[in-house]
Design a protein that fits this description.
The chain is globular, with a radius of gyration of 21 Å. It has one domain: outer membrane lipoprotein receptor (LolB), chain A. A hairpin with a 2-residue loop joins strand 9 and strand 10 (about 175-180). About 30% of the residues are buried. The protein is an alpha+beta fold and about 260 residues long. The longest helix is centred in the N-terminal third of the chain and has 21 residues, at about 5-25. The protein has five helices and 15 strands.
Length: about 260
């Protein structure tokens, strides 16, 4: 290759790098609005006897009565690590509360989606759009079940109204959240912000890959409205900022009835 040809190749590579960098720094365009609006919600009294930080959380966020939530549609935008790059994305999580979810994630370039990924947990069966992750694998079913309950932080009354769930005391800023799982039960160590009383983080032991022989430490945290997910204290691999939550809308075409 001549020096002139090498210079041209270098210039092209630099131009592609600049375009790529620019394209990955354009915010995703919003998803189309979800059809439907939240109806007036039935409420029930806040139960007595909750651990102190849990009681404070609900009184701060919901008051003395909590809504009965059956479905939720959560729309968000953020970033995720994909192919070693920090890539913008937009997403929608559709919940049948406490039962399953249907998630659409769209990584974007210059604000437009380049691929659509589906992550679902329906009728106890997990599907992850990722090579090497078989459908209905016991470890992935367990992992997706934990994701279901962690994502339910945006419909937190389910932690009180679902009879399978219970809170256990730890101290003034921590409590244990016990949830149903394919193995019987699972739990999160929940941290509450000392100043605001809101949930700051949820930690659990979770299967990371189908071939793992031991669970890994998995943490979801929220700071200034930005949710982040980390494994084993590594750098966050996923972040999202919730832009809309619709409750008790029709989601039957996505999750069906269980």
């Amino acid at each position: 290759m001549t020096m002139k040809a090498a210079a041209i190749v270098l210039c092209v590579l630099l131009l592609l790098a600049v375009i790529g960098y620019w394209g990955l720094h354009v915010a995703p365009k919003p998803m189309a609005p979800y059809s439907g609006a939240s109806p007036e919600l039935e409420t029930v009294p806040l139960p007595a006897g909750l651990p102190a930080p849990v009681q404070r959380f609900y009184q701060t966020s919901l008051g003395d009565r909590v809504p009965v939530v059956e479905t939720a549609v959560i729309t968000a935008r953020g970033h995720m690590r994909l192919f070693g790059l920090w890539i913008p994305h937009r997403m929608r999580i559709i919940h049948q509360a406490g039962q399953g979810y249907y998630t659409v994630i769209q990584p974007t370039f210059f604000g437009y989606p380049v691929i659509t990924l589906f992550d679902t947990y329906l009728k106890g069966v997990a599907h992850v759009d990722q090579p090497g992750f078989p459908d209905n694998h016991p470890k992935m079913n367990s992992a997706s079940n934990l994701a279901l309950w962690a994502e339910s932080v945006d419909l937190p009354s389910i932690y009180l109204t679902d009879p399978r769930v219970r809170w256990e005391p730890i101290d003034q800023t921590h409590a244990r959240l016990v949830v149903p799982s394919p193995e019987g039960s699972d739990s999160f160590a929940v941290t509450f912000d000392e100043t605001t009383g809101l949930i700051a983080a949820m930690e659990a032991l979770r299967w990371r890959n189908p071939g793992d022989t031991a669970k890994s430490r998995w943490k979801t945290a929220a700071t200034n409205g930005l949710g982040q997910v980390t494994w084993n204290d590594e750098a966050p691999w996923f972040e999202m900022k919730v832009e809309q939550v619709l409750l008790n809308v029709d989601v039957s075409q996505y999750v069906g009835l269980q």
